[in-house]
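Input/output pair, single chain:
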Amino acid sequence: MCVCVFFLLVRPPPVLCVDLSLYLSSRSFQAIVELCYTDTDRFRPTSAYLTRGYYFERRLHCIHMEIKGANEERQLPLLLISQKEKQFFYNILDNRFHTINIPELRNKYILTSAFGWLILVDINTEDCYLWNPVSLDKIELPELTCPLTYNKCHLSKPPTEPDCHILFIAGNGLSRHFCQIGDDQFVTQTTTDNVGCLSAVASFQGKIYGIVISHFVYQFVTANFVGGTLELNPILIEGGLPWGMPQPSRPWTQMHVDYLIESSCGELLLVHKMFRCIHLEVGLEFRVFRVDVDQMECKELENIGEQAIFISDDGEAFCCSSLGVKPNSIYFTVPESRNLYIYDLNDRSTSASLPCSIARRSMIESYWVPPQIFRNFLN
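Output:
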């Protein structure tokens, strides 16, 4: 059945008709109607938009975001808790975990997931390769020395496409190994603190961007694979100076992790995860920035709206919204901990929960993964 929703304007009176039946279940459609018509909804009273003269535009945005949110609700990342031979998948929405034994993930570390592929490292042999959980295809990589010392990994594009490169970044950001898929060996680049370490990297709007730290200066760069080299080119602002990014303020400067994440709204976010001490669960704080690569502006966000950010030490990072998820929050895990933490950007508080009570305390690794790539195992 075709369902249409009409919104009337005070001046002039054009009509918006959206065929929601193409997108939504009845439950999601009901949620949208309630959100758009209730005066106490999260978009503030509708009368405010009428008096400000942009009711129609904001309601368009409301419909667009809720349709998108309903489509993405099933795409909310799952927390994969891995312990050698067993894997536990935790779903935030129903607060349940499922125990699944996936042979290909036994005794493996997941360095990241991208384009439907996992980059895996065998704990025993240290073999490194790509694996697709849907097609079950496997792509071997050249031998990589001490792959477990690399905590960041990036695929430039789907590995089945030509000219795809894979990049491994060491924990200190100073050592980088990369190759084109199909090459028989990695190229190694090692730099020093004076030249700068690569602390974060992400693909956004067809380009690869990164954060390079040099002498406590954060530079926003583009990354390009040219021949057998990786070129990190600073983006220059007016006057020919490198475009600098905000830095973690003291006393956070000594221990921090950086993330570049594309949000569900199509924005590029820079996230600083900062620590006061060596205990990763104590004295932790986050700062979030929106990076506008067109206007070359970086603005700190006190509020990310209905979205939530999902990060872990390894694996893919996400930023999306869904009913049932705490908005304006950061969901994160820490190494060797069974807990799932939620950092509230409103009051800067942190809460903890235990997503999987049967997971052991030792040899535990947690990753955020897109659920669609594990559909063959979760059905």
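The chain has a mean pLDDT of 78. The domain at 76-378 is CATH 2.120.10 (Neuraminidase).
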